[in-house]
Queue: 3 jobs
Job 1
Amino acid sequence: VQIEVVTIGDELLLGFTVDTNAAHLARQLAAQGVAIVRRSTCGDEAHEIAAAVREALDRTGAVITTGGLGPTSDDLTKESIAAIFGRGMHRDESIVENLKERWKKRGWPGDLPVANLQQAMVPDGCEILTNNHGSAPGIWLEDERGRWVAMLPGVPREMRGMLADTLLPRITARLSAGAEAPRVIASRTLRTSGIAESALADKLGPLAKAPFGLSLAYLPGVEGVDLRLTSRGRTAAEAEPVFAQATAAIHELVGHNIYGEGNDDLAALVLDEMRARHITLALAESCTGGLLGARITAIPGSSDVLLGGVVAYANAVKRSMLGVREATLATFGAVSEETAREMALGARERIGADAALSITGVAGPGGATPGKPVGHTCFGVALGGDVHTFTMNLYGDRAEIRERAAQAALFALRRALAKPAS
Amino acid sequence: VQIEVVTIGDELLLGFTVDTNAAHLARQLAAQGVAIVRRSTCGDEAHEIAAAVREALDRTGAVITTGGLGPTSDDLTKESIAAIFGRGMHRDESIVENLKERWKKRGWPGDLPVANLQQAMVPDGCEILTNNHGSAPGIWLEDERGRWVAMLPGVPREMRGMLADTLLPRITARLSAGAEAPRVIASRTLRTSGIAESALADKLGPLAKAPFGLSLAYLPGVEGVDLRLTSRGRTAAEAEPVFAQATAAIHELVGHNIYGEGNDDLAALVLDEMRARHITLALAESCTGGLLGARITAIPGSSDVLLGGVVAYANAVKRSMLGVREATLATFGAVSEETAREMALGARERIGADAALSITGVAGPGGATPGKPVGHTCFGVALGGDVHTFTMNLYGDRAEIRERAAQAALFALRRALAKPAS
């Protein structure tokens, strides 16, 4: 099965908006064995929409569009595509009722504005794709020859919801009407931290290229290097055991550095473990300035574990709020393992937590000194009776160095938690 | 002048990579008066590339491609497009020299790998577009009728560099060969905070739709509502005074809420003002958990102003690290203007700063209590002898509420700084 996607909107074409819908559609469809063979973007004008959709329809007979379903005069998707199919338009009263109900439910004053009724105009002979996440319904239009266009809204949240709720099940049902299981593109991601891309490839040895006939991509980012295994040409049932084999083989070689799969967030994993073991946490941040705290507290329920922290940006604050000694700062400098140790101990004691993490480094672009270049970052992990300190030379710009530092601190804490209690 | 863009790559088509090149190209070209009328994305196969580029060339005669110029067997852009033009391929020795020099300069061991020589193969009769940011050179291919394809690399940094260094000047020169100044698409953005989209439109009155013949878009986000004025069909010189007029008229009506233009960051503006006035800052964050500190310290040189802060997530930390009174927490609750006031005063005193900001709120999804729904957030601004407190009901999910809270705190500080000293 081959599909084309047409994303519609001047905002996309002019580059004011980056087209994230297209990538989302592609990933979701590939996972169902549907290949997108071409993607086009056109502006809001009726003739542009009609041309782009007609050409796509001629090539594949199956087209998904996004955008142009709203209530304004710019929204011409339905009319333009109805014209390709030689269909007229009519008002769908069930949509009108739905819009009126939405309006009332929100407690907005007065009656539904006339402009909104435009959203109830649909091509003759179409089917409505319900929108549970917004007001513009989607449209499915099909001709006698089985050629079809599915029109989804452009707002990403609504598009994603409608795709999952309505369109994907419909496409999957069409596919399973055929005889055999579809060959899908499926992928699995292993997340690593604390190891460089080249070192990973070295350690993986003969697996580094195409383990068990899967393709392996290295995706370096500020949270570490993700390993993406991709299977092509297998059915979902065939792909599963190959992924399991490859994952086990990779774990054997670099398991030490793998902290999760898919979209796993290291902060969430660390929190879960600390919550289960009733260990509370305090933070002492210098160069990250609150970034580690912000990352941890982005997770609902983090207050079970994180009591608080100190952003000790100025040296005076390291002394007054964390009890770092003047002599330590004078002898070893603010960016040193000695200072990191006292920051972690001070945070743990003053905040009254069981464990503490500290970060102090040179985030750049200024601030480098001889022996302490931009990226030079010292960490402290206070857990149990132990304070572990270490130094990393992180690379990238200021933002990257700070994010890498937060991730490195979490990874160190995770390793410390994994050790048997001293 | 009309151009089509074809972005090439399986990664784009499969949705593993979001196509940011397309948006960048569109914005840069629009600013030169060049309209992109269609954008297509195809996979790495030669016949797909040839079909997409041929169709685009038939429609406009002017095509920019990105991707497929690398050294691997997947990189088929040059061959596929040469075939459309009926051209053969040859090896360009100047590129070979360049590649060899790059290899040596980097100190890599051994000779240039044979695979890299693929990058030196170019279509007969093409022009080379120098790449100052990577190894793959770009290609300009033109036929007797003046139809052309410009091939740029897919790596965003290299694509952007080559566009700026080489391709835009070339396209601009072509345009200026014509008689008159090109009609461009130009835009200007005014950034507002502390006012809802609908209230903005109300206050702008008759300007709300199309001030001075410009189109006006409302772009709500976590930092507030941006107002984007867009001019179409004017030359750059004609657009400038219209922007100035419209900006002045909008300032007259809602200037109180406008804090900047373009990509201005409110945190940077506040820092600049405090630095100039030698005012230092301390933070006390509860629900934002360090996000405000992270945002401020993302800016190089923020240490001139920000001394530090306390992330007081647990009530015990609000008491021990900020001196919030037990009675205040018991009587008014942790999310109250009374607590916000004591947090700000405590942070200012203990950190020894001139000014302090505090935030305490219900970020959700849990934590709501009667009278304090999710999004209910209290702020304190300590500046001079004064502590100003206020409450906002912020909307969105947890992440949005926290970002809105950080922005609201900065906006309140900016207003406090603008007041005559008390």
Job 2
Amino acid sequence: MPPSRETPPFESIGIVGLGLIGGSIALATRQKWPGVHLTGLDDRAILDEALARGAIDAGADGLPALATVDLIVLAAPVRQNLERLRQVAQHVQRPILVTDVGGTKRAIVEAAAGLSPAFTFVGGHPLAGAAHAGLAFARADLFANRPWIFTPVAQRSQEAIDRLRRFASGVGAVPILMSPAEHDRLLAYLSHLPQLTASALMAAVGATVKEEGLALAGQGLKDTTRLASSPPSVWRDICATNADALSEALDLLIERLSALRADLRKGDTIEAIFNDAARWREELTKDRQ
Amino acid sequence: MPPSRETPPFESIGIVGLGLIGGSIALATRQKWPGVHLTGLDDRAILDEALARGAIDAGADGLPALATVDLIVLAAPVRQNLERLRQVAQHVQRPILVTDVGGTKRAIVEAAAGLSPAFTFVGGHPLAGAAHAGLAFARADLFANRPWIFTPVAQRSQEAIDRLRRFASGVGAVPILMSPAEHDRLLAYLSHLPQLTASALMAAVGATVKEEGLALAGQGLKDTTRLASSPPSVWRDICATNADALSEALDLLIERLSALRADLRKGDTIEAIFNDAARWREELTKDRQ
């Protein structure tokens, strides 16, 4: 992704939370539009690390320092984003644009609607991740060819949406629009259910076979439980703010597991279920380039 | 693994089923002890492929051709191994050694005990695998540093066990002894439950979000469901011959998922469950070299 000569959609951006996603947004913006002024807000040690990597131009010690930027990106865990959003409404009286990158969208979109702020809020969620969290693993190409979902709720934000779409495209992502409810239901299946499944499986297997048993495990268990190493603090907020959709998804999985349990000795049924799953997996992994 | 000058534990081996495991046993034996005579038994096309790769010396068109080998390895899906075992009891009247590589051990060990054959049977299970099945993916180093479980049931087979352990060590594996029941319970958690979980999750997610939703999925779902691409024919037999242990494992997982469902809005409980799972995953993936 070479630096672009076109006018950037935002001249200055404030990023609240410089973890894997916030840090990667900084690095990707820097690479695409080197002239954009980037301000980070996070713990001092993380700001120092981001400054040392050249990911940001300045570190802020509070929200007032972000009052003059064109775009604020909330990139902390969901509940912190909700709290920051309230603070932004107090500190920022200009009609700027605010977005977030959290894993659930209904909660923050509803919160924004309730605040009636001076700024325009459009919820966002780049579907990008990595095996490890934190600024140390941030990369300028994290969003390359990945979907970046935006969840606009009113026509009045059309110009804001256009700018955010141009921003997401600029850093390599594929912007997609859907409603907050559609997003939360889809992500309950694509992301939240696999996460809970991996953690529940890992905990059940570990508690049963202990250290000695795990020492014999192969790649299959390791792959299936890879997500169980995800940061718990991110997931407590996602579970809390998508509990209804996630309950439905869990019910469906439990129903499927119970059906398998009932049919373990029925070879044709087992084979049919496995064939069905294998077909969906082929669909999941097929090359869409 | 350079060729060895020490006397091989078996001068001639017959391998029934040249898939990923059977084919890899042939290739690994060939590399370690080039002088051992290897006979394969499988469909004609697979025998031709194995001969072309130099994995075997001869292809057999039936069990009688294996009547003079020192060791027979049953390396087809479990129910086929059970059927082959009965045929071996009919065709082989010499006191040779027979083992298998199937994913469950009680069923075949009990079947062997019921046959009172001329040969000695010791159940075996190399815990090695790959993302793809079949001879094309067989490798001489598939067993390197992987456990190879043997499930002897009587002291009379001590010499047989010693030879099999030497064979497993020779191809790079770490031989381990346990009872058939211990094996089946352990594998229900390490292998069979992750497999069923991956297939159930993939089927549930696919049926809900369809092709359009799957097109947006990331690496998390792909990793968690990787096992759902495993060959269904292998798994119908494993489910059928380990249904009791697998039912218990499924019950435990369903219980964990139900507990998560009930606590989705309780942040501290969710975080505790996730932390527990993350600790077990750290144990699972720690370097044991």
Job 3
Amino acid sequence: VRILVPDSPAFKSLHDSAVDFVPYARDGEIPTRADGVVMLGVPRAHRQKLLALPGLKWALTLTAGVDHITSDLPAGVALFNASDLHADAVAQHAVATLLSAARGLHLARDFQRERTWGRFGVFSGAERAGQGLGTLAGRHVVIWGYGHIGRRLEAYLVPFGARVTGLRSSHSPYDVNSALADADVAVLLLPSTPGTKGIVNADVLSRLKPGAWLANYGRGELVVTDDLVGSLHAGHLGGAILDVTNPEPLPAESPLWEMPNVIITPHVAAATSDIEQRAAAFTADFVRQLVRGDEPPNRVDVSRGY
Amino acid sequence: VRILVPDSPAFKSLHDSAVDFVPYARDGEIPTRADGVVMLGVPRAHRQKLLALPGLKWALTLTAGVDHITSDLPAGVALFNASDLHADAVAQHAVATLLSAARGLHLARDFQRERTWGRFGVFSGAERAGQGLGTLAGRHVVIWGYGHIGRRLEAYLVPFGARVTGLRSSHSPYDVNSALADADVAVLLLPSTPGTKGIVNADVLSRLKPGAWLANYGRGELVVTDDLVGSLHAGHLGGAILDVTNPEPLPAESPLWEMPNVIITPHVAAATSDIEQRAAAFTADFVRQLVRGDEPPNRVDVSRGY
């Protein structure tokens, strides 16, 4: 079995007596033949060449989302992804930002940069942005897109006293609308598919309670950005946490950068300094299953898009 | 029984057939006689007058710390505090800031204010501040001052994969030093007493591992500020989370405001928008115990200072 892997040290140290691991440069020449290819942080043009290799049987993308891959995937090539690899970092990032919002840490940071002790009354920073300080106790968090990451997030939130509702694709529009209408925070963890693009539009935003927050850790394209800006501007939404945006990167002229209670992180929910090592370990485990003759459980249903 | 309470709506709605609740203005005239006094957010000069009322038997401060009270407390007046009232908010605030530090949210906020999508490589913001992105998984958090709040904090941290060591006053200096030497984050929840003032000095900071963080949610006076600045400046400490400072408020000219990986919140760990309502409910419960003839469990040992 001949498997192409990135040429970073962590992947180059992979070893399996039944496998020929062939390192490739993420921006250089491409080997001519492979049974499988493992991808992490590969630019699109390069990725297209890898996926078009003759005889390729499978591709493993070490990401949770696959929408950047599926349009370039030849028929007959099996696709695997790596939600499990990222579930914990994304869930911890989500809790970090949700707790930060509740505690007004974004406002405290703004005061810090002004060298100002922003505590007049309870916390003038919170009043400045029209936001009270609180905790997650008693907050209803609706997780729209309830897979590996969503379940992990739920497990983290419940001890803080949050009430969590998970929404899957099997839920009816009625269930979805009922849950959203009662949400204090609507968390997006949906994949980007033809059916979910722009799913969060003005109509959906208007169904949220006044003062509710939207948090997107899924894909930027889930949200109609103009509608989001409109709802924030009108004071209907209480705030937004955006790890992904549409377009992405967010252009410097976007009004979102400076809107009150908008917290932006640059698509880093899954990022950890040790990602190469963890991804290589994930790959080793994946390959062991293949060599044993088992199909790894992380096969993507390309027709569903996740 | 005649009990003085703040004249805010939440306290004015207290009712008990065995008690005469007398509201007082936090900045106005003081009633002439009382069995007990309940205090929240009372300026010092006013507090001194309240504590000096003839015949006063007890005082309830609706704070966790009592160091601002004890020096003005007449002999024979019992003091009660309210750690329980604040444990959850302080513990959630602590998790919020610890997770924020691990995820680099303070750096992301700085990028946001520059309208910059700060994701080059993994996260250039982190590299800029010499900090990798991570999670709390596998991190050793040493909680120095392990009471109500510390135990709550431990319960929140453990599901994230953190390893927690709690240090109580019964631990030997050897135990304390051993734990600190292995800490990734040293969390201060100690009360301010003559024995703890300045306890975190250059010697203690040098015992922490290079790159370790200090987080203070206790009292500003626990830390020798010049020594903290020196350790951060030398690059020994990896960063600091400061909800309390010395002096407090932190002066505009302090170098701490702009040091990399210093996260400052203005003594708001216990603050929630509904604090008056929660404090009044705590007071009602406290008074019920008194009326029943039970001593409430939150009596302060003034000789220990907590």
